[in-house]
Amino acid sequence: GIATTQTVWIDNDEPAELTQLELSKRALKGLKAQGQIVTEVPNIGLSDDAVWLLTEINDMQPKEKRIFWLQHETLSSVTFFILKPAEVGYQVVATKQDGINQPFELRGSRQPRIEITADDKGQGAILVQASGYTPIFMPVGIASASDFESLSLFVDVFTAFMAGLFFVICLYNLFLAIATRESVFFWYIVFVGATAASQFGVGGFFHQLIWPATSAQHLPELPMLFAGLAGFGAGNFVIQFLGITERHKALLYFWRSVQV
Q: Looking at residues 6-34, what average pLDDT do you find?
């Protein structure tokens, strides 16, 4: 595996407003933390400020190339800064913009990513600024380009299989709904279809397959809307399936009040 030291903290500055010296200070701030979280950042949480991540990579081969990516497909804005050691802190040698604010055609991958080349000592460092309208968490991946492509292909094939499975389930229940005229099958379709849509949205597939040529600033809310629709469908499915309308009036009134 690749040995890394990671540090996460929050600042509300925009990368475009920061000079080389200020960016170097950001990196030094991460170094002083020695791999600890400077400002508490929950794994699942919302923040209006920018989340900064400094990752030092320590045991690559000299001049080895690796793909560095964030395993978060719905980050709105991501800026990568490739760093090299300087007299004081680091010097920025390359930058890249990513995130769903960028058209997918310019990104080429659902995960924000950048290629990093190790120095003569097999080391490298990346400073990342990220923000978004969804819960922010910062798991990273580091692998060769071939391994990254293999992983992406596996995810695509598995997602295609699951999409086909969900489609068959919905089609079968639609046939039953038409044949029996029972609403329980309709609500099951709503539950399964909305659940699938929510998961595909979180995985970044809406941006890739539906709106690849545009910014996707409006997309982070869609998985949440579909998740709410899935809960609505699941509740009504249970009511119809268990006959709560006839058997448990009090429970029915409680569910209706929750819906409102």
A: 54
